[in-house]
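Predict structure. Chain length: 521.
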Amino acid sequence: MNNPKPNIDRLVTNMISRWRTELTTRTDDNPEMVESALATLYKLSADLPPPLVLWCESPVQQITIPMLMTNVVHSKMWDQTLTVLRHAGSPDSADWQTTWDSEWIRVERLVVVPILERIWNNQYPYYGAEVQRRILSRLKSHMHTWLLNGGLEDETQSAFGLKPQKTGNGIIPFPWERRMFKFMAKIAARIEQRTSKQFNFNGTTTVGLAVGNFDHRIVTDHIPVTRDLLKPESSELERLDRLEALKARFDEVGRISQRRNQFVGQVATGYTRPLEFPTMDLDRQWYEIAWDSIKWVNDERLAREAEARARTGVIWASSADWLPFALTCRHFDGELLADLDEGIDCWAYLFHGAEGYSFSSQIVFACMKPKFIQTDESGRPHCEDGPAAVWADGLSVYSWKGFAVDRKIIEEKDDITVGQILEESNAEIRRVLLDIYGNERFLTESGAEVLHEDECGILYRYEFDLDEPLMMVRVRNSTREPDGTYRFYYLRVPPTVQTAREAVAWTFGLSEDEYKPQKES
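Prediction complete.
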C-alpha cells in the first residue's frame, strides 16, 4: 500500500478541530440530516421502513418521555381512550380534537403524573417544576403525533409496546430496538479489528464480541501455533503501524467524546455513576477473558432492562468516539473500510444532527443538543459561577469538571465547610466539594496526619469513610521568590505511597530508588 496522501496531516488537524468544536460548544440540531440518516440506518440494520422521529428537548425528556409513553400504551385507561377516540369521527375534525384533549386530561392525571412523580422524587430532585411541566406538554404532543401516524391501529400499538414484563416497582421500561445498537457496535469493533495489530479487551471489542462480532485476532494473538502460522507480513505490519499512529492522534478528541457522553448520561439518569467496564486480568486464558466479557455485557443488559430508568435505551451521539478516525481512514486507504462506509456515514450524520437517540421498531426519539454549553480546557462541561449546560426545556445543569452537581454547590461554593465535606455520603460529590474547597486548605484545617517527612517534603494523609484516603505531599519550590521567601506546593499522590521521597518520585513517573534530584524548579 502507498504511503498516506501528502495532505493527510491537514485532514487530521481539520477533523480534530471540527470534532472538538462540536463537542465543546453550542451547535444546532439538524432534523433533515437526522431523518435521512435514520431512514438509511433502519434499512441497513433491520430492513425496516423509516421510523417516526419524535424530538425531546433535553436528556431528561429523552429518558422520561419514551418510558411514560410505554406505560400509557400498556394501561387499561389507554385502551378505554382508544375506544372513545375511534368513535369520535375523523382525527382532523374539531370534535375528535376536543375528545382527545378531554381524554388526555384523564390519562395524564391517573396514569402519567403518578409515575412521573415517582421517577422525579427518586432521580431528579434538583430539577425544577418547569422542566416537569415541559415533559407533560411534550408527552401529550408526541402521543397526539403518534396517533395521527398510525397509533390508532391495533398492530401499531402492539409493535410499539412489544409487551415487556413489568418490573418490581411496576414501571415498564421503554422497549428499545437493539438491532441499531448491535449495528453500531459491530461497525466499531470491525474498525478496531482492521486498524490494530493486537487484540485488546477494551470497551469496543468487548461489546463487539457480545453482539456477535468474532475477532480472528483472539485466535491469532493468543494461540501459539496459529499466531506463528498466521503472522502478518512485514508490509501489513507497517501499514498497521501507520494506522495505529494515525489513530493515536485522535486520542484527545476521543477522551472529550467520552466526557460528553458521561455527562449527558449522568444528566439523563439523575447524577448516577457512569457505565464503567470491568478490569480484565490479561494473565488468564483468552477464552476465559472472552467469556467473562460476553457475560458482563449480558448481565448489564438484563440488569438495565429491569431498571425503570432503562438508561441503556439511549445511544448518545458522543459515544461513537471512533467516528473521526473512521472518517479519516477513507483518505488513508479507500478500500480499508469501504464495506462499512454507508454505516459510518449514517452514524456521522446522527452525531452531527442531535445529542442522542432511543430506538423502537417504529419510533425514534431524538434528543436536542443544549442551547448553551461551557467546558474547561480539557473539554469537560464546567462552569464556576453558573450552569454549564442549558437545554430548550429550561433544564439547567451545573457541572464541576464534567460531573453534574446540585446548583447550590456552585452558587454557594464560598460557604463550603470541612464539616460539609466530611458529612457528604456520595464519594463523587465529596471529591467535587474537596476540589472546590482546595486540597491544601482541607489538609491544614481538617487535622490531617503527617505520615512521613524527609528532605523531599512532607507526606500528609486523611482517611475518609468508604473512600480512598487523601494523600498529598508538600514540596518547596527551589527558586526563591523576589522577596526572598520560598513557595510551597501540595501535590496529590496515590494512597499507596509510604514516604515523601516516594511521593515526589511518583510525580516524575519514577520509583523511589530512581529518584535522585539535583536541582529542581
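Summary: Residues 159-169, 225-229, 271-275, 308-312 have pLDDT under 50 and may be disordered.
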